[in-house]
What we know:
This protein has helices at residues 13-24, 31-39, 44-54, 61-73, 90-102, 116-123, 159-178, 193-204, and strands at 2-7, 27-30, 81-84, 107-113, 127-129, 135-136, 151-152, 184-188. By secondary structure, the protein is an alpha/beta fold. It has a single domain, classed as Rossmann fold (3-Layer(aba) Sandwich), CATH 3.40.50.300. A hairpin with a 5-residue loop joins strand 5 (127-129) and strand 6. Helix 4 packs parallel to helix 5, helix 5 (90-102) crosses helix 7 (159-178) and helix 6 packs across helix 7. The longest helix is centred in the last third of the chain and has 20 residues, at 159-178. It is globular, with a radius of gyration of 17 Å.
Amino acid sequence: MDLIFFGMQGAGKGTIGKLVAHKYGLEVFETGGELRKLSAEDSELGKKVKAIIEAGNLVSNEVVMEIVENFMKNLGEGKSVLFDGIPRKVVQAETLNALLEKYKREYKGVLLEISMDTALARLTTRRICDTCKTVFPADYKGEKCECGGTLTVRKDDNASAIHNRLDAFQNETMPAIQMYADKLIKINGEGSIEEVEKLAYEILDPLFA
């Protein structure tokens, strides 16, 4: 069973997604990570991605789906995927779903639900590792990441930029999420990481029993 993880910025999608993937043995597809990985490869697709990145161009939906398909072709036998950060728009949802159907994959959407107020509070107080880019919530007391990197506040974590990102989520990603209405699992993301993790397992355990 593949999972397509959704969540407003600040919902903890990346953090909870990694925990869920580890528990159920899922391979994580995260677009940015795959782009960086491919650009270092000496393959045709890797060269294409590297050329796009070096030219400073946005990666088209076509190329993103080519990357997704490449990822799926190289999956181990019987492996399932957790998609993090894709799809972001309706057109991307349409092409991703077509690809999943092509490979006869079973999948569910998972939405971590939080309020706009919670998103704003979390986004203006969180910190990010300057090395591995792991995001840490406001209640994390350390100054260093496990990888040794320093925790800093993102430059675009200011009120104006945050409002723009949340507006984009509402206007572009929510219509994509609605395409999964009959396959969508909703999880309350308002609690602590530990509380949301526990709730996620309670809801998802039956899928992987």
